[in-house]
Amino acid sequence: MSETLAPIPVETYRAALLTMLDEAFSGASGPSGFFTDKGTSLFETLAGIDAATASRSFSDRAGSIAAQVNHIRFYLDALMDGLRSGWKPADWPGSWQVGAVSDVEWQELVERLKASYAEVRVFAATNPDWDGNLIGGGIAIVAHTAYHLGEIRAALAALNVPEPAADPE
After folding, report:
1. What's the mean pLDDT in 88-102?
2. Which of 7, 91, 107, 166 has its CA 20 to 30 A from that of 43?
3. Full-prediction pTM beyond 0.85?
C-alpha cells in the first residue's frame, strides 16, 4: 500500500538543512545538537589542532588530518562547481594528496575550508529551487562532513591528543 505524502515547503527543508550544516561545521544549534556534542563541530575541533598534529596520520591506511580537511573542502568545491558548470570528472584521489603542513599552510587550509563552507551555506540559504538532486546533495554534505569529522576526532584520540578544555557556562 503506497501512501502519498504532502510536499515539504522549501523553507522547511532550507531551515532544517541550515541547522544541520551549522551543527556539522560551526557548532550545535541550542544546548544539544542532533548529532554532535557541544563544542565538537568541525571548526571547533580544528581550532584546537596545530600544524604538527594536522600533519600526522594514525595509520598507514588513513590520511592525515590535513588531508581530511582538504578532502572535505574539495568535496564542497566539487559540488558547487558541478552546480555552476555541470558535472565534470574530479580528481578525488588528488584531494587526499596533502603532506606535512607548516603553521601557515595549516591555517590557509582551514581558511579555504571556511570559505568553501560559506559559499555552500549562502547557496543553501538563497537557492529558490530544490529538486531531488539538490536535496540529496544537501543531505550528502551533512553526512560526508559528519563522517570525516568522526574520522578527525578518532585520529585525535588515536594520536592521544587531549581534548581542549570546555568553556564553563
Report:
1. 88
2. 91
3. yes
